[in-house]
Each structure stands twice: as structure tokens, then as C-alpha cells.
Amino acid sequence: MNWIGQFGPYALFLAGFLEFLGIPFPGSVLLLSGGALAGAGMFSLPLSWLAAVAGATLADQIWFHLARARGEKLLVTACRISMDPAACVCRANWFLDRFGPRALLIAKLVPGVSNLATPVAAVSGVPPRIFAVYSVTGAAIWAAVWLALGTLFSSSLLPVVEEVFTWAPRAVGVLAAVGLLLLAVKAAGGWWAVRTDRHDKRRQAKTPAEAPRQPNTG
Question: What is the C-alpha separation between 149 and 151, in angstroms, rounded?
Fold first, then answer.
């Protein structure tokens, strides 16, 4: 268990980064576990909080600037990667339309909105400075909530967490690999669907022009 005190904050940085990069990864659960371990004195709670905030903020900035550069195309890709492609953009759009950039303060705590709020905010034209303020604050709230819950219920969670963390290094590696594989499969499926749709539209556009003329029987 000594490795937890040394690498715990790094794991929480990775948890925030992977979760909000869109990779299927139980970042919030890992943060809950980190809160339980920090509550038991195995590593610093403030350092854990800062690490999680930094990871989530870095992922937000990557998504935001990619979305500003690629616009709707990246938003379509992000939606196809999500677990609920049909409703993901509608939820994020509704959330931002109703609350404005302030929605980013709690978006990370709302299922179905957390991963799409950032690209939707970018495409909607939220200025980078305003986004940065709300993004960092939202990441701070997200990390504080999960770490606080873990610390509050540390005595109940600690036996389970200690058992899990005995094989966690391998498990995290497997989960990360599986998450990356799922992301790659989803992205490939989305790319193929877009490619097929474009090909079909080209064929439909060419068909009237290429249709053979009927002989004049008059």
C-alpha cells in the first residue's frame, strides 16, 4: 500500500483527465476512493484535490480549443463517441441555453452533460477567458464533491478501497486499455458513418445529371 501515498495524486490527475477527455473511465469513482484514502491519512487531501482539478481542466482545454478549431464536425464526432448519441447534444444545448456559461459550474456532476458541455460551449461562442474561469471552478466543485464524500464515509469505504487498490495498478491499466479501445471503435464507427453518408449524398447529387436521356418518340 506504500505506492498509494506516492502515486495517489497522480492517479487522481489521470482520473480527471481521462474522464473529461471522453474516454470511458470511472474517474468519479476513483476520486471517491481517493477521498477515503486521504481521509485515512494515506496522502494529502489538498494535493489530491489540486491534481484532480488540474487533470479535468487540461482535458477541458483540449476539447474546447479543438471544438473552436473544428466546429460542428468535432461536436458530431464527440456525440458519436458518447454512450447516448441521440440525446447528448440536445441535453448539453438545453443546459447551456438555460443557464449560460454558469452551467459549466455543475455540468461535470450531471450525467449526459458532463462530457459534451465543453465542446458545445466552444461551438456556441463562449469566450476562452470566460470558459477558463467557469471550467476551473466547475472542476474544483466536481473534485471537491467526490473527495468530500469519500472523506466523509472513509471508515465505511476504506476496507473495500484497500482491497481494490491491492490490484489497482493492473486494473487501471486494463481499464485504460479497454477505454481507449472502446473510444477507437466508437470513433471509427462514427468516421465510417460520416464517410458513408457523404458518399451517399454525392451519389444522389450525381444521379440526375448522369441519368440517360429518353429518346424522343414524337
Answer: 5
Q: What share of the chain is helix, strand, coil (3-state, %, to 5)?
A: 80, 0, 20
The residue ranges of every structural domain in the chain are: 17-205
Q: Which three cell numbers stand for residue 54?
A: 488540474
CA distance 103 to 98: 8
Cβ atoms 175, 50 nearer than 8 A: no
HSE of 78 in the Cβ direction (CA atoms, 13 Å)?
29
In whole angstroms, give the CA distance from residue 80 to residue 155: 40
Closest CA to 60 of 44, 78, 48: 78
What whole-number distance in Å separates Cα of residue 183 and Cα of residue 178?
8
**Dihedral sign for Cα atoms in the order 99, 101, 107, 111:** positive
Q: Is 40 helix (H, G, I), strand (E, B) or coil?
A: coil
Please identify which residue in the block is written with the cell numbers 444545448.
93
pLDDT tens, residue by residue, 2-49: 455 567 788 889 889 988 887 777 788 888 888 888 888 887 889 999
Q: Which of 57, 52, 65 is nearest to 13 (CA)?
A: 52
What would the mean pLDDT of 106-133 be, rounded to a whole number?
85
pLDDT tens column, 113-125: 777 788 888 888 8
